């Protein structure tokens, strides 16, 4: 399947017989392979009578040398197609030292929070995992997922000039639509050495509609009206990440709290918060020093913290 994808990579038209000749199969077989390429890699292949097949967008593959400029001394692994960069990062930990970075052009089982799928079409978006050693005790990761939201919003602003907002705890939105998600996973024994795998997915050049996304989404290219340079984005996000992780380690999340607050999408909104089986209705006041959300509930300010919490706008089914 990869051979066919690479033949189509430049976004030009290729006839079925041309492709068949190059791959040594019949025209009919090409039609089937095109369907499989689309399914396996999440790309859109257009079929135009009289012209042939073409990708809806040319492929731009990640260049390691450019990305490495952000962190010259760190190991960076780039894969063409893997299940999930977070899973791959965990596996690499058995043979490599952290910190390290894992990137992929395509994830066949990209994972989101709360067991959701993260749609990861080939060479269109950013799928990145950063493995960070937890050397200062678990306080080191208080508020970390919120801090990473600030990192993503800053990288978006730096590269495109577009303003992103943050929805607690760590969804990144543009104009109310989700553009990026963050999935943190702790690996190892918290009493001994453990690591946190910081998984970041940013919709960069995805423009087609996918049935797999059950919430309103956007991509940076949709917002900008032009194609995003993915390796430059990867480089920018790694530069920001290195700078903010340093702050987190030295001063904790409280040093970034006000920056998060400035980007807060739902401040002052009436919301419902799902905590386990309970639903709390309140008004968003802000966030606290460990990344908790502060809600005004029945006239009383309460703080909520936890990975499995979800926040929804009252009377709104968006996530
Ligand atoms: C969310 O549900 O908002 C979190 C999405 C996180 C997606 C990223 S993509 C890179 C890394 N690998 C995964 O499988 N998931 C994260």
| Total helical segments | 9
> What is Rg?
21 Å
Kindly name the structural category.
alpha+beta
Major sheet: 7 strands, mixed
Oligomer: single chain
Beta-strand proportion = 25-35%
> What are the bound molecules?
biotin
Percentage of residues assigned to helices? 25-40%
Q: Characterize the overall form.
A: globular
Query: Would you count the extended β strands for me?
Result: 14
Query: What's the SSE pattern?
Result: HHHEEHEHEEHEEEEHHHEEEEE
Give the integer mean of the pLDDT values. Answer: 91
Distance between the termini: 35 Å
Spans of 5+ residues with little confidence (pLDDT < 50)? none
Strand order of the largest sheet: 3-4-5-9-8-7-6
Explain the overall architecture.
The protein has a seven-stranded mixed sheet with strand order 3-4-5-9-8-7-6, sandwiched between helices. A five-stranded antiparallel sheet has the order 13-12-11-10-14. A hairpin with a 2-residue loop joins strand 7 and strand 8. Helices cover 29% and strands 28% of the residues. The chain is built from nine helices and 14 strands. It is globular, with a radius of gyration of 21 Å. It is α+β, with helices and mostly antiparallel strands. Biotin (BTN) binds at residues 84-86, 107, 110-113, 116, 118, 127-129, 171, 181-183, 199-201. Biotin binds at residues 84-86, 107, 110-113, 116, 118, 127-129, 171, 181-183, 199-201.
């Amino acid at each position: 399947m990869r051979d066919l994808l690479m033949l189509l990579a430049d976004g030009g038209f290729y006839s079925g017989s041309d492709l068949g000749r190059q791959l040594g199969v019949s025209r009919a077989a090409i039609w089937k392979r095109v369907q499989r390429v689309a399914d396996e890699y999440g790309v859109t292949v257009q079929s135009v009578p009289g012209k042939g097949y073409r990708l809806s967008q040319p492929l731009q593959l990640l260049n390691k040398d450019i990305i490495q400029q952000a962190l010259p001394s760190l190991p960076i692994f780039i894969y063409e197609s893997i299940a999930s960069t977070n899973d791959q990062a965990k596996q690499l930990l058995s043979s490599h030292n952290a910190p390290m970075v894992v990137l992929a052009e395509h994830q066949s089982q990209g994972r989101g929070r709360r067991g959701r799928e993260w749609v990861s079409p080939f060479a269109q978006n950013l799928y990145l995992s950063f493995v960070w050693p937890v050397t200062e005790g678990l306080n080191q990761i208080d508020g970390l997922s919120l801090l990473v939201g600030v990192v993503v919003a800053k990288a978006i602003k730096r590269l495109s000039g577009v303003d992103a907002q943050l929805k607690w705890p760590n969804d990144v939105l543009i104009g109310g639509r989700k553009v990026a998600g963050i999935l943190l996973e702790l690996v190892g024994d918290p009493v001994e050495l453990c690591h946190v795998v910081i998984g970041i997915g940013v919709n960069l050049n995805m423009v087609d509609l996918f049935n797999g996304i059950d919430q309103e989404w956007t991509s940076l290219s949709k917002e900008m009206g032009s194609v995003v340079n993915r390796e430059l984005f990867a480089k920018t996000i790694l530069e920001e990440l290195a700078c903010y992780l340093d702050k987190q380690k030295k001063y904790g999340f409280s040093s970034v709290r006000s920056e998060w607050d400035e980007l807060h999408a739902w401040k002052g909104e009436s919301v419902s918060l799902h905590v386990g089986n309970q639903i709390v209705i309140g008004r968003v006041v802000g966030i606290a020093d460990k990344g908790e959300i502060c809600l005004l509930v029945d006239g009383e300010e309460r703080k909520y913290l936890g990975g499995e919490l979800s926040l929804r706008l009252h009377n709104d089914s968006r996530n």
